[in-house]
Amino acid sequence: xxxxxxxxxxxxxxxxxxxxxxxxxxxxxxxxxxxxxxxxxxxxxxxxxxxxxxxxxxxxxxxxxxxxxxxxxxxxxxxxxxxxxxxxxxxxxxxxxxxxxxxxxxxxxxxxxxxxxxxxxxxxxxxxxxxxxxxxxxxxxxxxxxxxxxxxxxxxxxxxxxxxxxxxxxxxxxxxxxxxxxxxxxxxxxxxxxxxxxxxxxxxxxxxxxxxxxxxxxxxxxxxxxxxxxxxxxxxxxxxxxxxxxxxxxxxxxxxxxxxxxxxxxxxxxxxxxxxxxxxxxxxxxxxxxxxxxxxxxxxxxxxxxxxxxxxxxxxxxxxx
Length: 321
Ligand code: UT7
Fold this sequence. Notes:
single chain, alpha+beta, Peroxisomal Thiolase, Chain A, domain 1, 2 domains, 10 helices, binds oxa(dethia)-CoA
């Protein structure tokens, strides 16, 4: 039987951290106290104007490939999860493929499931590997959400940041990804969206992220707990035997509430939202890479990753490292 193993992780954050006080200094009507109390966010990273998602994806991918001991030509499938692509087309995945120098003709495509994008891309890659068609897959979450924020809207602009995370997956005889689960409910598409369109040379409508924060909060807490239970059940693993939970990094209160519902204490939950803010599709692989590199996640351990975002779309994976 073919299994999918994670053989390397990498991540990249642009520039220096931008603190809550830095945002106040830039004229945003907010305070460090409000942001920390309501979200747990203390800083985020904002890409310079000429840096795109594919640039961030490239840096994260180089690090993941090095950790995996792979060269770019070993990659036979590349999937990028992003809602802030460099262009409408070509896909960010093909731009990244060219930048990495992958010239073996292997497929490359983007997945758009907003903050659930990495969970969607990972589950997709797992199925491609288990089909026997692909052996080494690079999965990347990369975002420049700073480009779609209304910096006059304090209820959203303080929450998000830019960054990228990547994993290299390999076909193996030994179990790695034990279960995945994906879901969507399009009836909630109105509570988190960027409703603008490119139309005949113009952006028509509103090009900025709009969110009903409280509605998103309630929805997220419920489904993040449910989907974590679902992957544990599918894998036949008791939640007590899960070493780490890596939830989507949007708000520390959502993360704490999810942990509580699952009966997992915070010392088994990886949280990087305080330092990174919400980096959408990049949030899970950024948190994963941080925990792998600082030695918290060790070989043999079981980790649940889970994302949720606009659509609404959500999903999870249970992985043995
Ligand atoms: O990736 C998935 C997407 N996002 C999420 O998961 C986010 C989910 N939602 C949330 O995290 C929270 O709902 C927020 C952090 C967005 C908001 O927290 P809240 O506790 O739900 O606050 P609220 O929206 O009810 O606002 C409370 C007050 C309001 O003032 P009034 O009307 O009570 O006078 C806001 O105007 O806080 C005010 N406010 C702010 N004050 C200072 C909103 N944003 C700010 C701000 N600084 N940045």
